[in-house]
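User
Please review the sequence:
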Amino acid sequence: MICCVLLSGCAQLPAPVVERPVAPTTAVFEPGVDTASGAWHGATIRFKTATQYTTATVAGVPCIRAAASAAWSFWIAPVPAAFAKASTLSWRWHVPTLVEGADLAAVGKDDAPARMLIAFKGDRSKLDAAERATMSLAKALGGLDLPYAALQYTIDSKALQNTLLPNANTSRIKKIIVQSGSGGLNQWQSFERDVRADFRRAFPGEEPGEIESIGLMTDTDSLGGVAEACYADVRLR
């Protein structure tokens, strides 16, 4: 599933995006939860059903609701230059149930009801030939650049919290389990991560570059099931 990575090069080109204005008095980038605001846009893989992202309210909390039925797509917010060197990402999500049969450590079963994504810029010329070839293929097929490196914070039924898992198709995407098992389901859960410390752990010997985007993803394309999640209070500082 080579296309099913964070900023997939096989994704359809999104409509032009206007970055949400950033008040000079704030030290926080908060793209909000209005899916019509222009702060977010979606990217989908050709020939795949897209996850549906809508504005909602769950348990009194305004949020972005993701609903997937044998679907894959992500919802992304470009990070303004003022926050490209930020280090702390925080968010909340509400996950009703896990994806039946999913296992993020198993190829072909790596569906997840919720993922928070962050992509970093970097010098692609330093990557090995195989990774550069993957990026070139993605660019040729879809017209979008894959990120130099990316982290996915996610939930899994089996892996323990803080487990670091590889992506099956590229070494430039790493998954970090932030919620494990059924504990905390069907209620709002809050998270905060030092993304630069997590980058150094995921990519030993490398220093994180500027952040280019943050995103949300709920996917069930591998097993063909259904899942939903709601995301709120996404902040980068």
In short: DSSP finds two helices and twelve strands in the chain.
